[in-house]
Specification:
alpha+beta; single chain; disordered N terminus; 7% strand; 440 residues
Length: 440
């Protein structure tokens, strides 16, 4: 059904193409970090049914099956109960279609077999702002908790690998485990909810379970030998149950600490050799907006569209004074309309793309665009086609204005070297030097 949902998305104003949707059972274990730990019940946004926060998947299934409501990217919602509470209030004030796109499944089949689903996603500015606010609020709570742990001097705990006791600051224990037992969970300033984190790790060891691979052994001696020989004295980065204990997970929405860590300075340390002589640039493969023509350079594809289809993207950019991101949205808008076999100028629908292109030529609509507000929308930030090389060739009008073509009209005044001796004698610098010599 997910494939059917993404095929056609109808709103009152325009069609949208969305990424494939995921049903609740496909969500990752790190969906909401700490939000599923607070125990708050969650009420359905469209009825009075209530679910424990630990049964979020059941609630999502209930929304899909009973109300035909799909919430996109649930795993990126920081505080799911608060998110649901907000939209329950908004849906009570206005119609659901005022906020959600309407997904028509089986659009080419019989009418009686068609269903309408509602999609709530962050393409709606109100939803995006809500998600960002919840993310910032959670980050503030986490940073406040971390500061409390930093200032806490009542910390007292025995090392899980030996009998040494540590009191005062938690960093003493963490540094001890890293130095004496080669077991590190990261720098103390990167860890939050430290006591709960240590309890989780200690519980695994008490159950004779390896912290890394989570295999169970018959006794502690065998477990210790296994962790030492297999070098399993570390945290498994793929175990998302640990994500909530690292501050970095709360900084960038949708990325785990493993992903962010792998990106940090990666290019700086991969190769310190500055010799680029063996680098071979891969040619781009730009595709025409109106046909299947491909070219290895941007100039060729621009020339093709201008000569074959009488479409001049450079002229549109200049005439409309389009900035970089406006150009991105325009290209994505045209791509999307052509994919839907619909004229981007008059919105007339066609059966095939060839019929549409012929209509654009016959009606002279190739260089005619609708009102800017029609295509200058946030949803067109996202490319219609993955790896659209045409987008990489776009440039800001302001940056191009610095080029030689634009500077050719600027008068250049040559330096006057006709009487260098006179210039030297009357120079201000010469006067300053005389004053300096006189004062010395």
């Amino acid at each position: 059904m997910a494939d059917q949902m993404r095929n056609t998305i109808l709103t009152d104003k325009q069609d949208c193409i969305l990424e494939p949707l995921c049903f609740p059972e496909h969500l990752s274990a790190s969906a909401s970090l700490a939000s599923s730990k607070d125990g708050r019940p969650v009420t359905c946004v469209l009825c009075s049914d209530c679910f424990p926060s630990s049964e979020k998947d059941q609630l999502l299934k209930h929304l899909v099956l009973d109300h035909k409501l799909v919430i996109a990217d649930v795993k990126l919602i920081t505080d799911f109960p608060q998110y649901m509470l907000y939209w329950k209030k908004r849906f009570a004030e206005q119609l659901i279609t005022d906020f959600c796109s309407v997904i028509k499944t089986n659009s080419e089949g019989p009418v009686e077999q068609q269903e309408h689903y509602f999609l709530l996603c962050d393409a709606l500015p109100e939803d995006r702002i809500l998600r960002e606010q919840l993310q910032r609020r959670r980050l503030e709570e986490v940073l406040e908790q971390q500061q409390k742990e930093r200032d806490d001097t009542t910390f007292h705990r025995v090392c899980m690998f030996c009998n040494d006791e540590f009191t005062g600051n938690r960093s003493l224990l963490l540094n001890h485990m890293a130095k004496e037992h080669s077991f590190s969970i990261g720098l103390p300033d990167n860890v939050v909810f430290c006591t709960e984190f240590l309890n989780t790790l200690e519980s695994k060891l008490e159950n004779m379970q390896c912290i890394y691979c989570e295999k169970t052994f018959r006794d502690k001696t065998t477990l210790k030998d296994h962790m030492r020989k297999k070098q399993h004295r570390r945290i498994n980065a793929r175990n998302h149950d640990y994500d909530r204990f690292y501050v970095i997970n709360y900084l960038e929405l949708g990325k785990t600490w493993e992903e962010v860590q792998s990106e940090d300075d990666r290019e700086l340390f991969e190769d310190e050799d500055d010799d680029w002589s063996d680098w071979q640039a891969h040619p781009v493969c730009a595709v025409c907006l109106f046909c299947e023509k491909q070219a290895e350079t941007m100039e060729k594809i621009y020339t093709h569209m201008k000569e074959t289809h009488e479409f001049d993207l450079h002229k549109l950019k200049t005439d409309l004074n389009l900035k970089f991101y406006q150009q991105v949205k325009l290209v994505n808008y045209i791509r999307r309309e052509l994919h839907q076999c619909r004229c981007y100028c008059c919105q007339e629908k066609f059966v095939t793309k060839n019929e549409l292109v012929q209509h654009l030529v016959n009606k002279g609509h190739l260089m005619q665009l609708p009102e800017v507000s029609h295509w200058d929308q946030p949803q067109y930030y996202f490319p219609t086609y993955e790896n659209d090389a045409l987008l990489t060739a776009l440039s800001d009008s302001e940056s191009e204005s610095e080029g030689p073509n634009h500077s050719s009209n600027v008068p250049v005044i040559a330096e006057d070297i006709s009487s260098l001796k006179v210039l030297k004698q009357t120079s201000v610098l010469n006067k300053l030097l005389k004053d300096r010599n006189g004062s010395s």
